[in-house]
Design a protein that fits this description.
Cytochrome p450-Terp, domain 2, 19 helices, 429 residues, three-stranded antiparallel β-sheet, mainly alpha
Length: 429
């Protein structure tokens, strides 16, 4: 039994009892209410289900199992996955056990490459990524064990198995998609001597003489790993998984949500904006020129991408981590210099204009510029990087929900006429 599985086997009975006792003692306690605006507005802010892997605090940002994500910036993605699943960071022996487990599962079946190479030459990288995950569903241990009559209290065991199989293969699949889709050559083999993020970086095949690209990939994968349970990709994964669809179905569905322009495309939109500034001024402009460009953007009815956040009311700590990394490795890069100055100039303008509740930069304000700096210039691929990272959180949430026996998601919907009647019944006489 692996150290991770052994740890979960010890913890899960305690978690189940805690959840059972909370429902028994406080099952009728109201924790949220829903307004008409929320019903028509995507249920934003409605507290309706539980996610223990992370929360987003308006003043502190993403907090993973009680630890602010900025404090995890030097941790490997594998460590953060272990943290999300168990609630504690792994000791050296547990980390080595998890890494070895992932390495032995890393081989990608040949039929995956056959499917990817058979797809249209102009297929979107996220289409290829979601398809590769879905076609691997034939490997599902959960589906096989469920068909044999698996007891409910053991659902988490094959779910963990599927999650580890999937996570182990995602770096090679994602890197292979990059090389196939953008004509970079054949997929590169995994290097068993490297960690999860470092191996992903080397399989992309980009020059990395200093090793800083690999370092940035580790940072990127850690920072983007989770973001509560209500974002589109996590919530989709949760909903599909709640039907006892196996992790391949659920994570593939989540990736389809991540592919949407309102969710996973933000950093490439920011980079387009930054490069338009670079092109206009043939380099990094002065602060006055940059301020004028931002004002023109706002006066034209457009937004400045990378600023504002649905929950945060401070600078996103993930942006701070990315910015600190960029200041160390790319301080003289004109594209990064534009990002650096925008982070000073834009919040002041947005506060003057009263444009947003949160005028501060979010993580997407800087990550694309650093990917571009390291030579990863194919914008359509950026969401795949996000997907590899977010698969950590999706998988962790699936494991925990199977352990707790979370029921199928089935919120009650109402009609517009029902709301009209309800509002009318509350109107003053």
């Amino acid at each position: 039994m692996s150290r991770l599985k052994e740890r979960l086997a010890t913890e899960i009975p305690v978690l189940r009892e805690e959840a059972r006792q909370l429902v028994k003692d406080h099952g009728t306690t109201v924790i949220s209410e829903v307004t008409v605006a929320q019903a028509f507005g995507g249920m934003r802010g409605v507290k309706g289900f539980v996610c223990d892997t992370s929360v987003v605090d308006p003043e502190k940002g993403v907090i993973i199992r009680g630890i602010p994500v900025h404090d995890l910036a030097q941790r490997l993605p594998e460590e953060v996955f272990y943290l999300m699943v168990t609630g504690e960071l792994p000791d050296p022996e547990s980390l080595a056990s998890l890494q070895n487990d992932l390495r032995r599962r890393a081989h990608v079946p040949e039929y995956i490459w056959d499917v990817l190479k058979a797809m249209p030459r102009d297929a979107h990288p996220m289409t290829m990524f979601a398809a590769a995950i879905l076609v691997m569903e034939r490997e599902s241990e959960f589906r096989r064990r469920y068909a044999e009559g698996l007891p409910k209290d053991e659902y988490w065991i094959p779910t963990l198995e599927d999650a580890l199989q999937l996570l182990a293969k995602l770096p090679a699949i994602a890197a292979g998609i990059y090389r196939i889709r953008f004509r970079k050559g054949e997929p590169l083999l995994s290097d068993a001597s490297l960690d999860w993020g470092g191996d992903y970086a080397q399989m992309l095949g980009l020059p990395d003489p200093t090793g800083e690209f690999a370092n940035f990939m580790r940072l990127f994968l850690t920072l983007h790993c989770d973001h509560e349970g209500g974002n589109v990709s996590a919530f989709t994964t949760h909903t599909v998984g709640s039907a006892l669809s196996d992790p391949y179905y659920a994570v593939s569905a989540g990736m389809s949500g991540l592919a949407g322009p309102l969710h996973g495309l933000a950093n490439q939109e920011v980079l387009h904006f930054v490069l338009s500034i670079h092109d206009r001024y043939k380099g990094a402009p002065s602060d006055d020129q940059l301020r004028q460009f931002v004002l023109e953007t706002l006066h034209d009815g457009r937004v400045v991408p990378g600023y504002g956040h649905a929950v945060l009311r401070v600078t996103d700590p993930r942006f701070t981590a990315v910015h600190q990394f960029g200041a160390r490795v790319a301080a003289e890069d004109d594209v990064f210099r534009i990002v650096d100055r925008l982070a000073v100039i834009v919040p002041a303008i947005l506060k003057e204009q009263h444009k947003v509740k949160d005028p501060w930069p979010n993580v997407d304000a800087g990550s694309g510029a650093l990917l571009y700096h390291f030579g990863l210039t194919e914008f359509d691929y950026y969401t795949v990087l996000f997907g590899v990272s977010r698969a950590l959180g999706m998988s962790a949430q699936l494991i925990i929900n199977r352990a707790l026996g979370t029921p199928i998601m089935r919120p009650k919907s109402v009609s517009t006429n029902w709301i009209k009647a309800k509002v009318g019944s509350l109107a003053p006489a």
